[in-house]
Automatic annotation (TrEMBL):
This is Adenine DNA glycosylase. It comes from Antrihabitans stalactiti. One of its GO terms (biological process) is base-excision repair. The keyword Metal-binding applies. Keywords: DNA damage, DNA repair, Glycosidase, Hydrolase, Iron, Iron-sulfur, Metal-binding.
Amino acid sequence: MTIEAGTLIRWFDSHARDLPWRRSGVTAWQVLMSEIMLQQTPVVRVAPIWEQWVRRWPVPSAMAASSQAEVLRAWGKLGYPRRALRLHQCAGVLANDFGDVAPADVDTLLTLPGVGAYTARAVACFAYGARVPVVDTNVRRVVARAVHGRANAGNPSTTADLADVSALLPTDRRRAATFSAALMELGATVCTARSPRCDDCPLPRCAWVAAGKPAGTEIRRAQKFEGTDRQARGRLLDVLRDSHAPVERARLDLAWLTDPAQRDRALDSLLVDGLIEQTDDGLFALAGEG
């Protein structure tokens, strides 16, 4: 079974969410920022931060001229702050080597700091209209159900996943880019993981529905955040983001009293990841601010 492109595109034209990075005038650099921010982070949290970043750093050279600490501070609580450092590094490369513009070619995009296979294809597709398969969790789920009749996609397989989506793309370049966005939108808003709204699905045929919606393997539950090393790291970073000068170790200790060993482990990992630094006199600061 396949997915009828025209039907899905018409649905997308009238049902697409008004996401700020989809609006006219958005540059490839700004699309790149959105894709990095959206990794493992909900749209509702990303949108206001992205809009702030576009105003502050509309071109890569503007970000490159800022310090790592400024970028980390502006990242706020989006999570996985190493992404902010990679964006800062990427901005420097784009400013110095690419004329302040994110490239259109997937292979060239893959050479940039922090840009992986998904992000490279997403930028090429959504910023430049390239006819390339863009595969995320939502797309894999839609294809698994509509095409293969499975409740969920199972373990990722880059080769198989890209081949599946490539086979569905319209031959027309513009329609292919819109189809890619529509496929992703369908998975994000209708063909969701736990409560798919099949009655609202625009697809006239779905192999999973035709098969009687057979159950799939258990969907892995999201890992808890409370009490984790990630939370401890976040608390330590909060202290440094709120201070524009290096702080003493004692202030960091007060930020996580639950488990001193965990706090030490979190602090060490922040240093190893290059998110924070220790000054010659033993104080701690955000990267680039010590």
